[in-house]
Fold these 4 entries.
Entry 1:
Amino acid sequence: MLGLNWGASVSERSASLPCDELVPGARTRCDRALSVDAPAAVLFRWLCQLRVAPYSYDLFDNLGRRSPRTLTPGAEQLEVGARFMRIFSLRSFKPDEQLTLRAPAVAVTYAVHPRGADRSRLVARVVFTASGGRLGDALVGRVLALGDLVMMRKQLLTLKELAERSV
């Protein structure tokens, strides 16, 4: 279905991620993935920057302020409960591997998979349930999935660019 997948392989889409357990009965699951020419540790460090800014369309997501293009000292010092992108809280993390965020009706995991010494793969999954039961998921959920695709695609491409420039 349009908007539910961008760049994720069949095996990435079928893999279990921590966000899968956080929204019981979630009927909408969106997978996004891309390859990054940077080590997993560098990419994960940029994911930690999501504490500071959304790295998507700053005019809409960041009140018009540009997301930082340099690493913010201390942003990598994670603890469960920390705020991310103003609306999420950190539910779990494994350094250089994954971080999982939660908001009231949505959860997202950003997973980093090393591909050799200097490449990695970033897989992001968003799960949510739209209001209105099955009909809400069928209609509203698909619209939300498309909106998420636009915003998260920009976010992932921006983080990819910044991680690759860091090496």
Note: The beta strands are 5-6, 28-36, 83-84, 88-94, 98-103, 106-114, 120-128.
Entry 2:
Amino acid sequence: MTASTESSAPGSTARTRVRRLPELAAQDRATLHAVLDDALVATVAVVDDGQPYALPVACARDGERLLLHGSTGSRLFRLLAAGVPACVTVTLVDGLVLARSAFESSMNYRSVMVLGSSAVVDEADKQAAMRRLTEHLMPGRWAQLRPPTRKELAATTVVAMPLAECSVKVSSGDPQDPDEDLDAPVWAGVVPVEHSWGEPLASADLRFDAEPPAYVRGWRHGRT
């Protein structure tokens, strides 16, 4: 079963309906977009000759599609370019939830699963797609870089996975301990997981003396 339109709600197909803790399912596309926009890496899973493979791949949302790029020699990208069915997941961990028992302890997280087949981004759109990926991963960088060479473009495959059939799950808040555990002398709460950028380190072969560009320093105060 596949989604009928790109605007269908997350979790609206038999394959994507959240069955475990369905109350955590998010059904609005704004949440779907927000999770993907915060993600730098997706896990892409395919089956080749009966063997499942799941690999991390840099990603960027471009409207109602997810862009992925890799080497033309990569088995994964040869399969994706051929349109084999794939499962793409993103998980962002926001905190550790410390309950009064190991059983009730958990994580606060935001996750997305996308099912479908990808298509190769055509040559007319390829450089724009690479720019979108670069700007998502390293905001402000593309304008300072030299353009990709023909050889580099030829060595790179960019594919787009439609966000047509997907699910979104969000867990947040305090531990949900049963009443009989509430009097236990055990601290309970949430330890947030914070993602931050460190001080930029110049390459050892940098041939001029300069401070990191302002846009790089700006990443420490929020990437746009």
Note: The domain at 22-177 is CATH 2.30.110.10 (Pnp Oxidase; Chain A).
Entry 3:
Amino acid sequence: MVSVCWKAPTAPWVKVNTNGSVINNLGACGGLYRDHLGTFLGAFACNLGSCSVFDVEVFAFILALEFVALHGWDHLWLESDSSSSLLILKNSSLVPILLRNRWCNARSLNIQVLSSHIFWEGNMCADKLANFGHSVVGEVWLPSLLAKVHHEFFADRCGFPRIRFS
């Protein structure tokens, strides 16, 4: 057994937890932004249609960068439960060819990026948002916390651990 906890970033970083979901070959993704106090800053969800799990995870990173720039934040801590997708931050040739132009544009937005892996148990807010993405059209910015994410959000903010069984 391992205890998994979401941790707030240090100031001035804004942390976004992202996740992707594929159901019947239809992809969606989501992400949730928090500041150094764990305060909710906003969230996004997106329906991508037909694509792979890797595509939705990478697209979530692209949207995370684009929304950060849109809000004028310039220090992004990107956290995901997809360790394979996090590799694109070190090697952009791993970005799927159909996403490469948008990825390059997002990386040129002058945003400092840190990244980290978190196990699924600590990424439940993003998981719920990714699943919510299946019900939206296109990309949606959420300025308030969805009711379906409240429980996980407050558990994270209070530092409650989630148990991961090996």
Note: Residues 57 and 143 are 22 Å apart (CA to CA).
Entry 4:
Amino acid sequence: MEQGQVARFALFSDVPGDKLSEIERLCDVVEFKPRDVIFNQGEQAEALYGVLSGAVELSLLFTDKFTKTDIQYEDSVEVKLEVTKKPIVFETVVPGEILGWSVLVSPNQLTATAQCAELTQVFALPAVKFKAILDTYPALGYTIMAKMAQIISRRLHSLTARLIEAWGEAFGVDTM
């Protein structure tokens, strides 16, 4: 990984140079093709990712259950429970932004699926090693977590807005 790439991310903007170099040494650069999945909702978070180039869509898997009735003859009715699953994209992560914040928040379970929208290059910062650095330097850990809280808050607002929009579409509601 080229030196200084991590410094371009807001999450690391207040990290002193020596500690930033230590973090950069832990990062691997990984390339993904369009439609490749970086991680799935519900999996354990193994790494923090930063988008270097390309774009990654964050989505939730929406599960819809409904009954389907099939009337074959007047006295023969078959009722089945149908289940459909559909991803709802709520945000697109672009260069300079991170994903996989769950690495730092217990129970470390990923809250969304990350799928590449185009050819994408990311850095991957292993969770265990990153946490070890933050444990070693508590002041740095505080700085990182304060910035991480801003990211989580923004994503929560984005997710909430998209779910309200999807709910309105599903139930034909024009205004709320």
Note: Helices lie at 17-26, 127-136, 138-171.
